[in-house]
Predict the structure.
Amino acid sequence: MCGTISKSTKKNLKTLSTARSTLQWSGEPTTILGIDPGSRKMGYGVVELLPRSGYVYRECGVITANVKAPLHERLVELGEGLTSLLSEYDIAFAAVEDIFVGMNIQSAFVLGQARGMVLYLLGTKGIDITAYAPTLVKKYIGGSGRAPKDQVRRSVSLLTGLTTLPAEDAADALALAVCHAMHLRLSLKGVP
């Protein structure tokens, strides 16, 4: 098991103003899915939040689509992969990366379509969805909102007890799941 939360992380997580969640954690073992959406590949990470002992790593990986296929076909492939993943776990909460506004407009539109597909599939399953800005996740997992991707990969590997570094997109998604696990844990008063 891993996932103890330091006092400084608790203080930082209390300021998660850009994270929005409509449900509170009941304190029961709960499965959380992190998603790093994309139009060619989608990272995912799954952790289980436990009542008194933090969280445990379950799985992470990348769902890929044929890069030569048109966008609508890629979204179908990615959606089928996500649907298959959702059937494997009883997901209660999902943390999805927000769109980074600094990218070019065409990339933002394409990513928005991929993100919309993810939100739709999660919503149809009744999963509570929270959006996190990439800089916020980097701050809490990597120590700085401008942390390089490799630093986030190393940090999330340590936090989840992995012995090898996950793929970049999988690490981003796992970081989202861990960040949300920390956030939910703090939302339940009386849990250490």
